[in-house]
Amino acid sequence: MKKHGVTNDQERRLLPVDSAWFRWACVLAPGLLLYFVPLGELTPNQRHLLAIFVATILALVVRPAPMGVSLLLAVTLIAVTGTLPLSSALSGFSSPIVWLIFSAFLFAQAVTYTHLGIRIAYFFISLLAHNSLTLGYAVAASNLVLAPVVPSDTARGGIVAPILRNVAEVLGSEPGPTSARIGSYLTLVGFHTNYLASVMFLTSMVGNPLIAKFAFDIAHVELSWAHWALAACLPGLCSFAFIPWLLYNLNPPELRETAHAQTFANGKLAALGPMTRHERTLLLILATVIIGWITSPWHDLGNTTVAMAGVCVMLLSGVLTWEKVLSNAKAWEVLVWFAPLLMMADELSKQGVIRAIFDAGFSHLQGWPWALSLAALALCYFYAHYGFASLTAHISALYPGFLGAALAVDVPASLAAWTLAFLSTLNAGLTHYGTGSAPVYFAGAYVSQNTWWAVGFVVSIVNLAIWLGLGPLWWSFIGLW
Question: Which of 7, 203, 319, 339 could link 314 by a cystine bridge, Cβ 3.0 to 4.6 Å?
């Protein structure tokens, strides 16, 4: 099966053997080991829950079955073994976070269905594509504007990547001998500014609300929509300003003048015609929803309530039909797999399992200055993503433990929560498999794997310098810690 031109085999490129049995063995063996081996003072039920959770995380990485299947199996196993009552095993579906994410996916569907997302991307290209560098900034602007209401870097890649491919072809750049003309640069800038956009807003990546819940449950730190946007704005805009220029110098395009791209984009905008009633209505709805999120500290409506109200208005106004909602497989899939994952991570945190494991694992940091401890934890957390093919899997497996470890060595709670929150997405740029949009862009075949990894590592150092250097100063200035 293909998705955005990427096969399932490509998504599993880390595995040495392409066999469903081998993939299931990779999932079940560590889980069974944890199931039968006593672990300190953990009760049998705590040990069983940890074993099922570890196996589930591995299933998200190696993909022996679709994510929804893996999570449904996990919930069933939790109930069958008596690890948790069935009502507790299904409690994730009652979480407001799950429905916030579901609503955000419906906003993304409306942006795509009405062609508003395509119009935004072509608008910035027509406005800014005077040369190759400004074309890169047009791509960055497109990703940034789409980010608040498209909660998936894969979905944004599905909107922007095909447009970049068309632009590259118009400018005479095809995969192969002419890829360096401009196609490789557009691919890299599209990918790196895509995951940067995921850092900017609570609703711009599916794992961000999960981070917010962990931060509140473990450290009692509230990462609201408004606070998230404010915390990310200065370091984020610095990254957006610097990364396209850095990529332009790391992988310089042979073509410097791109007037043809502006002509091409203007032609596409002309073909789309004037904005339709549905596009104008959707713009108004999205603006109202974002204002509702920003002002949530001053009214009694939570972020999820505001989002669901926006979905209702879309349905009542005809911007989105109920039939379209029912056909949105991605939104329903996220609802099915995210709720059980949230439940398991929440239960492990409540029962103290994560804290017990990571307190033991990071006990050697005791006695270090807290700033040095935070730096060590941050770097370990960031570069651990080389072993993950999913941001959500990384966050679910490591964020609670690393946050708990930071608190155990006296790192200020808010600083630890914000630092790890932003690094949870910035690490996506390391590899060609680290997040959903990576295979989307890599499959275009404009950039070799060696170049992808080398550029990703250099960009990671720059992002770490910005977010670990400027970030804490900015967060202190605005009173977040």
Answer: 319
